[in-house]
Amino acid sequence: MAIGTPNLHQAVEKARARAAGLDVDLGALADCVRQSRPAALNDEADKRERRAFLGNLYSEDRLAKKAYERIIEGNELQGANYLARGALVARTVLRIVIRDPAGRLLGYGSGFLIGDDVLITNNHVLPDSGTAGSSQAEAFYEYGLLGEDLTVERFALEPQRLFYTSTDLDFTIVAVAPSAIGSGAELADIGWLPLIGTPGKAMEGEWLTIVQHPLGERKQLCVRENQLIKRDTDVLWYSTDTLAGSSGSSVHNNDWLVVALHHMGVPETKNGKWQTIEGRDYDPARDDETKIKWIANEGIRVSRIVETLRTDNAIAAHPMVVRLLDVGIADIGTRLPVMFRDGKAPPAPLPDMRRPGAQAGPLPQPSSTASTETDMARRTITLTLAIDDDGSVSIQNQGAAEASLMEAAAAAPKKDVIDAPVDPAKHWTPKTKGYDPAFLGEGKLVVNLPEVVEAKQDIAPLKDAYGHVFTPAQRAAGVLDYINYSVVMNAKRRFAFFSAANVNGGMRPRVSGRTDNWLFDDRISTDHQLGGSYYKNDSFDRGHLTRREDLEWGETPEDAVRSANNTCTWTNCTPQHSIFNQDKDPDPAVQLWQGLERYILEQTAAYNKFNIQTITGPIFGAGDPVFRDIAYPLEFWKVVVAVDSAGELFATGYILSQKDVIAQFGLGEAAQAVPFGAYATYQRPISLIESATGLKFTSGGAQKVPLTQADPLGGKRPARAIRRPRVRTQEAFGAPQDDALQSFDDIVLR
């Protein structure tokens, strides 16, 4: 059952009490507002205030008058440039990954940039500098134009530079690192949203738009059913669709100016009890907060936030705050609601767009990569935005852009499979470079092959083949070198003790298509290998230990394809339930397992030249079940090693189990379909993996420094059977009560 945080419940209760003090039913008020126009809902003073604001915002009074008339009449038609402007605004909204100082994931929230390196969110999302210092802000956690996952840029929060919070108004501002972790992407390229303290930005009956990360998911917009129903001194109430994780979202008027910081929903109450969507009293001991029935949402007015910052002498003089407060309506010269460093207009090429006929390039965009393999070749679509004198933004040459998009879809090529077959006699010779212990560096950065400690007698001995003449020591060690990886086989179990690989994310030429030709290795007895017949007519797939995708690198496309093809060896194969290899809608835990290497590459790219090392294998148990006379493993482990920003090794360990899935759903031809979410991936101390496998992991070459010293968990995580409770919040959404990884954000890397 979910456990709400005290900060969260206090915030909800405050919102409920504030709404109760209105002596009006917000639900009924929302219905009334929906049936009326702003002209009938607001008094003359409010209308004059709104008209004056528009007069200051627009370059010509006729444009301001036209905008005002549309607003008071409830005309919700918007120019097509509304979407283009919103795309710029949405870039500034970030997902906040909330961690405690120990690095444990607490949940998610939203936030947005309001100045140079300054982010705003709720106090109940980041209540103190300690939480802020251990949390991160993620940009571009969203889908791209063609539905692909954009590459997420993760920025550290720096409360030592700036941190200010208000429990009364439930807001926090905090400094953000100017460069992204790993990639070095510049925060300044994203822009920020000005906080305009001048009243008159919105009035009752107007429609609002909210940019948010609901449930901590990819960025989404709510652009309908968002109506301002009531204003108070500190807050706005509005009807809109927000979910947990939306705390800290930006609330915008139709000019995309920020009117409020979304912070909380107002729950329906009966007899002093919050109500659930099921029509009963909410019980925090048994109910997830998403069960609460919300009758309205509440946002903190921007004017009150600005006033608080201006009048608090403890923060008003801070240089970072002075800059963000020194922005007014007059500074939004083109009505473009996004500003850039030093208060200037958007960087080139945007300023050039003001000149008629100028050929502008694309806005700075994050790099994007598809999350799964697809037949669609990646295409870049350039949209040219034109900014008119009145600030209207439109897409030039829309027909051409649409044609480009259609061409991208139509031009999806057939699979162009590069012919790079693996010939063991040519490619598994004494010259073959397998796993390189010094791949990450020399000396202390050397990562040794694991040592088989407890079952040395089961190592499959080598025999001469492919030009090899092995020494007695080499025969006993059993190391099989392939292109970019090495394997040691368990002769008794006929599966590998481990498969260790060098992964270079910076030498990955564009290739498409694949052909899998599984090979036996003549350097060990075929009795010590398990071939393809084991995998026929059952729910087992031929599962790679070293992943094909990880070894798709090399000097040339042909080298990369051959390196990938050379992972299709029976020595690098273990039986894995077919759900492991689903291309569509993969199980989330399996998706995490398969994406660990890429995630760590992204986190360390700036200082390790895109290099990591992965060591993977099964956990052999005496009680492993038998299928077709062969005992098969139920659990798999993975150790990923990289170099951190200080030039030191760090290593993390993971375990994934298929025990429960196989026990419940079977393996034979009549096996049941496995439901989504059936698996779980766990981060575990390397010391635990050593105990479970009988292997020893070391670094430093002959020094044999325990790799556990480079593990951020340091062996302190409890055993797998022990599950610690996880804290969840309502709008700052958290994870289930289980220490299984729910996302890459759960991974402890420091």
The first-level CATH class of the largest domain is given as Mainly Beta
End-to-end separation: 29 Å
The proportion of residues in beta strands is: 15-25%
Q: Could you tell me the number of beta strands?
A: 33
Q: What strand line-up does the widest sheet have?
A: 5-4-1-2-3-7-6
Describe the overall structure.
This protein folds into two domains: 6-331, Thrombin, subunit H (Beta Barrel); 424-717, Extracellular Endonuclease, subunit A (Extracellular Endonuclease, Chain A). The chain is 21% helix and 22% strand. The strands form nine sheets. A seven-stranded antiparallel beta sheet has the order 5-4-1-2-3-7-6. Strands 9-8-12-13-16-11-10 form a seven-stranded antiparallel beta sheet. Helix 4 crosses helix 5. The longest helix has 21 residues, at 588-608.
Task: Describe the protein's topology.
Blueprint: H1 6-20, H2 26-34, H3 38-41, H4 44-57, H5 61-72, H6 81-90, E1 93-99, E2 105-115, E3 118-121, H7 129-134, E4 136-139, E5 153-156, E6 163-166, E7 171-175, E8 209-212, E9 220-222, E10 227-231, E11 235-239, E12 250-252, E13 258-267, E14 269-270, E15 273-274, E16 294-301, H8 302-311, H9 313-316, H10 319-325, E17 384-387, E18 393-396, H11 398-410, H12 424-427, E19 451-452, H13 472-477, E20 479-482, E21 485-490, E22 495-504, E23 540-544, H14 557-565, E24 573-577, H15 588-608, E25 611-619, E26 626-627, E27 630-631, E28 635-643, E29 649-657, H16 659-665, E30 681-684, H17 686-693, E31 695-696, E32 698-699, E33 705-706
Antiparallel strand pairs: 1-2, 1-4, 2-3, 3-7, 4-5, 6-7, 8-9, 8-12, 10-11, 11-16, 12-13, 13-16, 14-15, 17-18, 19-31, 20-21, 21-22, 22-25, 23-24, 25-28, 26-27, 28-29, 29-30, 32-33
